[in-house]
């Protein structure tokens, strides 16, 4: 009778787990197994632990990278065992192992890396190479043509140990994930009718303005579903209150964009939502 550890994919997963590398099973096409019934179609709102690095607590492999585990009992027994037996490939969570994978998807991307990045451990892929560095960082897709960064809250297919020596994650790779936000000009202060005999715009008082921005950040952060719509409505509410008096600064906009990006919004989505809110209000 075949034992779980005799299955090559399970053997690979146990090897990774024994080396502190969280492993997860993949279907054909490099896709993770579907979420459990409780979390199907993201009905759980992205839980558990989808906003921060950490393991999934569902009874079966669930939520992609969050299903990665280093527990050999989870891999070889219980509800997860069948998924491992049926898996077409093995993946791992680089950030969970303190690693970063620079995924080079074509020969041109490989050539760019050879000219630009420090040498490190290299793994051949179907179309290019994975360059693996010691150190974790924010993951980011399409940081340049043919280049993705896979580290925290992401998974990479396991294609072997590769060749070369792991080197420390360089600043050149970290910089790739820093996407510049379009610079929004600081609105100019305008004359506002003042009630009660004089004084400056109430929006400029720290209590009123900071509380409003903080509440907007919290509203975005707490969104468990319909994140796109929540971000747009929040931007609309902020601009309807503060968009005409000149009190909003680029720093305030950056806080809102940052909150949205922690929920998975891209800079482009943030920019579009902000622009659409401006248009809707006639600003």
SSE layout:
Layout lengths: L7 H11 L4 E4 L45 H5 L2 H8 L2 E4 L6 E6 L2 H10 L4 E4 L4 E6 L5 E5 L2 E4 L5 E2 L9 E2 L2 H6 L29 H16 L5 H16 L7 H13 L4 H15 L2
Helix pairs in contact: 6-7, 6-8, 7-9
What does this structure look like?
The protein is of the alpha+beta class and 283 residues long. It contains nine helices and nine strands. The protein has helices spanning 8-18, 72-76, 79-86, 107-116, 171-176, 206-221, 227-242, 250-262, 267-281; strands at 23-26, 89-92, 99-104, 121-124, 129-134, 140-144, 147-150, 156-157, 167-168. Strands 3, 4, 5, 6, 7 and 9 form a six-stranded mixed β-sheet that branches. The protein has a three-stranded antiparallel β-sheet with strand order 1-2-8, covered by helices on one side. Strand 6 and strand 7 (147-150) form a beta hairpin. The chain is globular and about 65 Å long. The model is unreliable at 180-200 (pLDDT under 50).
What is this entry, summarized?
The chain has helices at residues 8-18, 72-76, 79-86, 107-116, 171-176, 206-221, 227-242, 250-262, 267-281; strands spanning 23-26, 89-92, 99-104, 121-124, 129-134, 140-144, 147-150, 156-157, 167-168.
């Amino acid at each position: 009778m075949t034992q779980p550890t005799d299955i090559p994919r399970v053997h690979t997963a146990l090897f990774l787990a024994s080396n502190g590398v969280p492993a997860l099973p993949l279907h054909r096409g490099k896709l993770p197994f579907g979420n459990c019934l409780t979390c199907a179609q993201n009905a759980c709102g992205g839980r558990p632990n989808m906003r921060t690095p950490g393991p999934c607590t569902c009874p079966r492999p669930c939520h992609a990278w969050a299903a990665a585990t280093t527990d050999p009992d989870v891999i070889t027994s219980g509800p997860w065992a069948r998924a491992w037996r049926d898996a077409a490939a093995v993946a791992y969570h680089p950030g969970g192992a303190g690693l970063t994978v620079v995924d080079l998807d074509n020969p041109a991307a490989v050539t760019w890396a050879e000219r630009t990045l420090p040498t490190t451990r290299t793994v051949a892929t179907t179309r290019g190479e994975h360059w693996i560095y010691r150190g974790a960082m924010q993951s980011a897709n399409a940081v340049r043509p043919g280049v993705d960064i896979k580290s925290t809250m992401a998974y990479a297919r396991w294609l072997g140990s590769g060749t070369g020596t792991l080197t420390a994650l360089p600043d050149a790779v970290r910089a790739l994930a820093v996407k510049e936000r379009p610079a929004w000009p600081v609105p100019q202060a305008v004359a506002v009718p003042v009630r009660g005999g004089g004084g400056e715009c109430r929006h400029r008082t720290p209590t009123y303005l900071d509380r409003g921005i903080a509440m907007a950040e919290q509203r975005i952060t707490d969104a468990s579903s319909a994140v796109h719509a929540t971000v747009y409505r929040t931007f609309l509410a902020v601009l309807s209150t503060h968009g005409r008096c000149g009190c909003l600064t680029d720093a305030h906009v950056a806080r809102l964009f940052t909150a949205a990006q922690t929920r998975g919004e891209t800079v482009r989505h943030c920019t579009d939502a902000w622009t659409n809110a401006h248009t809707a209000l006639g600003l």
